[in-house]
Amino acid sequence: MMRRVRQGLFVFVATIGFQAAASHAATAPSALYLFDELSGTIVTDSVGSNDGSLITPANVTQGTGGVFGTAYNFVSDSASGGINLGNSSIIQPNDDFTITMWINPSSLDSFDRIIESMGGSASTDQGLRLDLGGAPGDSARVLIRDGTGASATIQHSLNMSTNQWYFVAVRFDKDAASDQLQLSVLDQVDAPTAANINNGTSGTNIAASIQTNGILYEAGLDTTVASKGASGTVETSNGYNGHIDDLAFYSSVLTNDQLNFVRRFGAQTVMPTIGWDAEDTSSTTASSWASNIDDGTPRTWNLSGDADTPALVDVSGPSEFRIDKAYQFVGNTGFATSSSPLPNRGDDVSIELYIKPTDLTGQEVVFEAGGDANGFSILLDGDQLKLRYDNDSVSDLAGANFLQVAHTLTAADITDFIQVVAEIDLGNDLIELFVNGESVGAIATANAGTAAGNIGSWGGGNNDALGSGTAYSASDIGGDDGADLDSFRAFDGLIGVVRFYSGTLLSDDQVLGNYQAMLVPEPASMSLLLIGTMGLLRRRR
Question: What is the value of pTM for the model shown?
């Protein structure tokens, strides 16, 4: 088992067999600044090419403790400091966008700029500003202008304190009928629920000229972070003082649930189409496990109604993962079925789970979709973790033929949760299995002893199941073929997180990033010691 990946340590992951290239773009930042650099003047855009630069490196301390890995600490109020991000449309968005970050102010002074792209404060100045608002300067404020005198401003009602982390998000929807501009500010100790995000949001209607023009920016004026003013201005004070971590720019308007996901797991993590997180119990009942992020169609795992019904439990003992609650499956007859089959059964798909088996002795179904002749499953066969796929409508996989990848687990692997990612790549006719951020095998029709063919849809008409095949019938287990799965029964262990990515094949880096995002950060001193020893600058969690 690959244990905790240290902050700052870049790990190269080699795919065994085949590289699964994403077929659809998943919801991810268009620019992301992790603030993990420990030296130098370049501020790296981790997902693109819009790197920033330190304005006065002496006034910025790198490598301080952050929410995710390390952060930057800025001293900029009356000194030259901060970051210049340039004037790319990625960080000067005109139309729909979302900006997220974590801030920890060292001082709370009126009008201190967190993000600045305006040349001044006149009504004819244009662009976007995120600052600490008017007196007494302890609440976040966002201001947008289009240069014609039209503007919109929100000052959030939450009164912030110094030396405390806050999640801040700005959303702008140019064409929305209401609440085009939204500002969310959440205390770090608040429970990560959609209702919490929504309650922490203010909204306003936008002037007609902004709805027509969007946000306009002054030509040649660069956007700065934690600086006294946008590049080229002559402000003498009002630069932000304090820490900033994980600054992300999205080219879409994130939903409340998506904001929650970013807030809990960081901006680097690719957001699933549908996800179930046992930690979010706001919509969970004794008989169901509701999705806490979805595609607009909420989906629920219906828990079996008998003595072995999976129970929501606090995870006992120390764990390296951001998992404090999970569902306890006890084998025998306990399992969960979907209220409706997972969508888009003819598309590429990735499934990500965080599981902790009780032992490695049984034959158990962890997850399955579809049925005997048309479906797939994630199985535990003793110490063998298996991903299995079948589609009898394809001649190459007819009869008793199927695709299967197996990986051997050890007792040490299941002392904590493990990440399991299964991918079905229809375009390349292959399946691939990942464990704890690493590919452990891939197989395609061409190297399975058959001719290459189109493997096609991955789901039949049966409902999908978590923790067992539906009703324990072998014909209900996705991918079963040849009756060799007849003895497989319910899963025995913990399941804390389930994520479904429709039309998306996670890349090696994305699988690893998801895994690292789930790990509890180590103390910054340990990270810096490791990084200093190895000379490597990139983390993740």
Answer: 0.84
